[in-house]
Amino acid sequence: MTRRTLLAGLAAVVATAALLASPAVRAGSEPINYADINKIKAEGLQNSQVMELASWLTDVYAPRLTGSPTFLKAAEWTVAKMKEWGLANAKIEPWTNRNGFERGWTNDKFYLSAVAPERFPIPGTPAAWTPGTNGLVSGEVVLVTATTEAELAPYKGTLRGKWVLTQAAPDVAAYWKPLATRYTAEELAELESWPAPQPEFGVAAPGAGRMGGPGPGPGAPAAQAPQAGGRQGQPGQPAAAAQPGIVPPAAVQAMMRGTAAAAARHAFFKAEGVLGMFTTTPRGHGIYTISGNRASDPAATVPAISIAAEHYGRLARMVAKNVPVVLEADIRNTFTPDPPVFNVVGEIPGTDKADEIVLLGGHFDTWHASPGATDNAAGVAAMLEALRILKTTGVGLRRTVRVGLWGGEEQGLLGSREYVSTHFASRQPLPATPGAPPAPAGGRGGFGGPQGPLELKPAYDKLSVYFNIDNGAGAIRGIYLQGNDAVGPIFREWMEPFRSLGMTTVTIRNTGGTDHQAFDAVGLPGFQFIQDELEYETLTHHTNMDTYERLQPNDMRKMATIAAGFAYLAANRDEKLPRKPLTVPVAGRGGR
Question: What b/e readout covers 320-337, taking b as 16+ CB neighbours within 10 angstroms?
Answer without folding.
Answer: eeeeebebbbebbbeeee
